[in-house]
Amino acid sequence: MKEPNAMALPGGYVYFSRGILPLANSEAELAGVLGHEIIHAHKRHSIKAMRKGIFPAILQIPGEIINVVISPQLGNLINTPIKYTGELFSSNYSRKNEKEADKFGVALSAKSGYEPLALVKMLNKLEKIAKLSSDEEAKFSFFDSHPMTAKRESDIQKRVKKLEVADVNPIIKDQNVFLKKLDGISLSGNPAHGVFQDYVFLHPDMGFVIEFPKDWLTSNSPEMVGAVDSTKSAQLFMGVKAEQKKPSIYAEETKKELPLDDIVLINDKKIKINGNEGYIISMGSKEAEEKMIIHMLWLNMGKYTFQILAAGDESYNEILKKSVLSIRPITKKEKKSVKATVLRIVEAKENETLTSLSERTKNVLNLEYLSIINELEVSTKLSKGQLIKIGKEETYPE
Known about the structure:
It is built from 14 helices and 15 strands. The model is unreliable at 52-91 and 136-140 (pLDDT under 50). The two termini are 22 Å apart. The chain has three domains: 6-55 and 90-181; 191-335, Mog1/PsbP, alpha/beta/alpha sandwich (Protein Transport Mog1p, Chain A, 3-Layer(aba) Sandwich); 339-395. The strands form four sheets. Strands 6-7-8-12-11-10-9 form a seven-stranded antiparallel β-sheet, sandwiched between helices. The chain has helices at residues 27-42, 45-51, 64-67, 72-88, 95-111, 118-132, 135-138, 150-161, 175-181, 247-255, 317-324, 332-337, 354-361, 367-374, and strands at 6-9, 13-16, 195-197, 200-203, 208-211, 217-220, 225-228, 234-240, 263-273, 276-285, 292-301, 304-313, 328-329, 339-347, 387-395. The protein is globular. Helix 1 (27-42) crosses helix 5 (95-111), helix 1 (27-42) crosses helix 6 and helix 6 runs antiparallel to helix 14. The protein is an alpha+beta fold.
C-alpha cells in the first residue's frame, strides 16, 4: 500500500503501510507511531468504532448487483474483501480515542528508550503529506478526520515533559544506518503485485494483461484486482483459484449453487481465448425490472486458473464482456514497460540544494514531497556526504 498509514485491527494486530516508511528519519519516529497504534489496539478503539458504525468502506459495492442474480452467499463472498479492506484502511477514531492513543503512546515510547517527541515530528509530516494528496488518496490518510491541530501537538508536548526516557538501547541510533535501510522501498504500486497503466492491468510475474473499462475506479489487493463503475452500477473483479482444475469443473460447481428459480442462463459454454482453455457462464435475472447481467469466466493460462466475474446493469453488457475477454499473456514489450518508483538514498555534494541534487540524480518525486520526507527546505545548503532521500524510476527486473 503506497499511501502512508498505520492501523490497529481487532485482536491486537498492528500494521504499517509501506507508504509510511519513507517519511521516517529515525527509528524513534516509527516507534512513536507504533506506540500510538498499540494503544488503539490495547484500548479496543477499533472494536468500539465498528460498533458505532463509523468505519466507512473505500468501495461500497452494492450487494444487490450480485445477490439479486446469484445467491446472497456468493454476493457476500464477492463483496466482503472490498468492504473489509475498506474498514482496515480507515483510521476514523473519535477525538477522545486519538487523545488517549497519543497520551499513552508517547509513554510507551519513552519506556522503550525512544525520544517520545519524535511522534510529533512524524505526525506533522503525515499531515503535510495528506494535504499534498488528491481526494482519492486522502481516503487512506492517517488524518482523514482528526488532523494534527495545534492543541493536539500542545497536549503531546505537555505530556512528554512529564516523561523520563528509559535508559535502554533502541536498535538503530545512527540516523545514517537507519536511512540506508530504507533504500529500495517501492514508492509506487509494487510491480510484483501487478500494476495499472491507465485502465490496463499488467502482472509481469504472473504473465498476464487485462483491460478494464476506461474511467472506472480500480482496486488491487492480494485477493483480487478489479474495477467499479463510477456510479457503482457495475463491477468487474478477477482472482486466481487455489487449484488449477479444468474451467468446466469450476463452472459445474458454480452452476450447482445457482438459484435457477431466479435466474436465466444466457450463455453456458467452453471457449478458447488466445488458445487458452476457458469456460464462460452468462446469466440474467428472470425479473424483467432488474435487468441485471453477470459473466463468470474461468481460464487456464500458463500455470494459473483465473476466475473473472463481471456484473452490472444490462446496459453494461458489451463493456463487461469486452473486458472479460480481454485477458491475455503479457508481451515482452509490455513487461519491459513496467516500471516502479523506488526510494533511493544518495549522498549530497557540498552546497547542493534539494533542487540541484534532484536535477543531478534525476529524482522523479515532487520537490515539496522531497522537502517533507527529508525535513529540509528546498533551498537549504547541503553538506558533502549528507544522506538524502530521492525517488528513481526503475525498470522492473525480469
